[in-house]
């Protein structure tokens, strides 16, 4: 059993914060899977923004999630924090793992599963995803037990790093404002350029729909429903007077 000095509120807060920071490192490593699928900024300032946004966004999210075990540490002893921390870490890293799997396979994110057009994975991909979830759960349980039940002291600048994460996020926002450029949109510029070149898909106008309905009823030949008949080019058609001449 840990000594009373090792089960103080101060130690429990440091232990839960260290657990969150360790998971943050794992989240940073997992998020590296996004990098090959985005456009790297060509300018040095854009790369600085990407690093600050990448570190700061995940870091601030980890700090926000840490508030829950920090609140529990006000009431629970160290050993009672093992399972809550393990479950919370598994949910966080597991969601990131599933999102990277979807993004690498289909280009969609986990939130797209709630839409009508749901992304699909193959059986092998789902098996790999499930195996990764089991591995994450085991790692989180071991890590939580190792920190909450076995650690005697934590010689690590926990609070300095906790405060650094929001600073990095604010730095990325400051760069975004100073350059007057939407850096996030620039990461996906290839998709935007492709959409601009292809244009929007043609939408049949009411006149074309009516003509298509009459064609179907009369068994007429197929026509292009996407062309507005009121704007059809008739300059190449012969005049009636020309056809009447011998």
From TrEMBL:
Swiss-Prot/TrEMBL keywords: Membrane, Transmembrane, Transmembrane helix
Residue ranges occupied by any Inner membrane protein YejM N-terminal domain in the UniProt entry: 7-190
Organism: Kushneria indalinina DSM 14324
InterPro entries: YejM_N (IPR024588)
Region described as Disordered: 188-246
Transmembrane spans: 12-35, 47-68, 80-104, 124-144, 156-175
Name the UniProt record assigns to this protein: Uncharacterized protein DUF3413
